[in-house]
Design brief:
There is one protein chain. The protein is α/β, with parallel strands linked by helices and 695 residues long. Helix content is 63%, strand content 9%. Strands 2-1-3-4 form a four-stranded mixed beta sheet. It has a four-stranded antiparallel beta sheet with strand order 6-7-5-8. Strands 13-12-9-14 form a four-stranded parallel beta sheet, covered by helices on one side. It is elongated, with a radius of gyration of 40 Å. The N and C termini lie far apart (103 Å). Its main location: membrane. It is a multi-pass membrane protein.
Length: 695
Amino acid sequence: MERLFAALNPSILVRRGDIIFTFALIAVLVILILPMPTWLLDIALALSITLSIIILVTALFIEQPLEFNSFPMVLLVATIFRLSLNVASTRLILSNGHEGPAAAGHIIYAFGRFIMGGNFVIGLIIFSILLIINFMVITKGSGRIAEVSARFSLDALPGKQMAIDADLAAGALTDQQAKVRRKMVEDESNFYGAMDGAAKFVRGDAVAGLLITFINIIGGILIGVLQQGISLSDAAASYTFLTVGDGLVSQIPGLIVSVAAGMIVSKGSTQGSADKALFQQLSAHPTALGICSFLLFVFALIPGIPFFPFAIIATAVSGLAWFSYEKIQAQKDTATAPSKKADSATSTASQLPGKESISGIDMVRIELSYNLLPLLNRNDGVKITDQIKNIREQLGIELGFVLPAVRMQDNMDLEDNHYSIKIKEIEAGSGKVCPDKYLAMSPNGEDIPFPGEVTTEPAFGLPAKWIAGSQKDAAEHKGFTVVDPATVITTHMIELVKENISELITFADVQKLIDGLNESHRKLVNDMVPSQVSMGTIQRILQNLLDEKISIRDLPTILEAVSESGLGAKSITALTEFVRSRLGRQITHSFAQNNVLNVVMLSSEWESEFASSIVGDYNSARELAMAPSQLQKFIKKSNDLLNRSDVAIHHPVIVTSSNIRPFVQTVIDKLGPRTPVLSQNEIHHKVSIETLGEI
């Protein structure tokens, strides 16, 4: 006995569930072949009814359809089980039906006697009604819902995946959360697809029940009259009684499972279990319940209609309406109290503007033509969203500022293969890509010996050509740079972002950066703001640094420099130059190559020319008032020197005095790709200087 209880231990049954399930399916198949004693058939029929009730109750209590994502498989197993029992009961009815009403077991006999009341005609009518309800109403409706849900779920799959990838790229989701969300989307699509097929099982089960009943009645009468020698009336009564009883035993569990299937597929996006969702939504409108109660009282008062049934129900509905009204009022009172307390906190918090305050404006947005949307979810190569995530991390490390959320969406107005990159809703750049090809670029300007569409790389203006994927390896072997369309778009985006990054750091971003400092540095900010400088001034300084690609990761040093210069320097430009001098080691390191800084010097004549052309005091707003002819002359000389092959190959920086550095940088920027301009105060003393020329 102890061994028996040990074998029935639930933990052992759970561990050996695969073996038990396998033997159960084999037993179902055996039922189709071997005859079954009546006592075992009774147990199996009771098990079938139990299984159907468990399925229905489980469907009622789940809060989301995916909580019962094994339902299609359970439905298949339950259907096969019922059909195998139909075969077993048919064998008993046809072979032993002449022996009496208990020839096929006590459960079939009990169902026939209880529901039919001894009259097989009544049983046939009830069986037909149940069959019509199951076949024409429940299974047809749930099958249609499953079909539509499967199609809509499949159609919405790319959009849902794109939304997840966009949230991941924007930093709203972690990698793990994105994986979970993707798995849920995939499971949902698979579930509704499986339910679409499983609905056919339910429908087929109802049809099979009708055919089996017809065959049993005709076959039973023929066997009883021709083989057993009983009269036609006795054969019709006996075999019809058993067949209808068998049909009822199989159709009632089938009807229960059909209701469960309908409950699951019709649940859709409704949150919560069926009972909670039903009562919460019906009781959410007490006015509707009150009107219903009034109409029921009117029905009760109509002559000839029973008064008490309608009056009792009307009273119950009116009580439910009053209870719902009181509950809604209590919820409103509870919600109003804390909102009044939060008014002052809300008004204070609203003084700190952030990205959310720019209502409806995307800081960075990539718009794609419709045929480019597959680039967001392609399986070959790296997705755009994954690249943007890496770009945001790279910018955070490189410049100390995390790129705001990048929104990606389709734009039906764009021509095929075109994209647009917008910064603060204004187009900063656009381009064209071939989604099924690769872009081969020639850094040295040489011809690309492969067939394809000639173009220009949008980020750096390099000569390029769109080539077939089969030529990718050969092009790389010849030394050409080959990238996929997604990389073309993201590379273009990051260059545009770097050009406009000073516009992307907002007041809220500065506040967030400062809040991330340790306590000692936050104390420095509290002592400095607003007595020496305002938070807006700090924002402008950080914008100036980012505008020239100077990293703001070393925020403590920047704040210390602002604090030191705040009492003397008053203009934003002067404060920025002082901060740059304190960041000299960092700036020099970012432009030096192997501890060698290649420089182009500014001649003393041009130093004097710039210095004499500056209008305004060093600590106030200053402007460059150089004659246009002199500006053109300076631009030409600079362009000639910087484009010389022996100079350009070393990517030099221009060195000037700190007094004129920002103005020289402004003029140099007109030449095209930015050449950094450093002041003599920013060059670290431990770096070697290699002078390549003089302007």
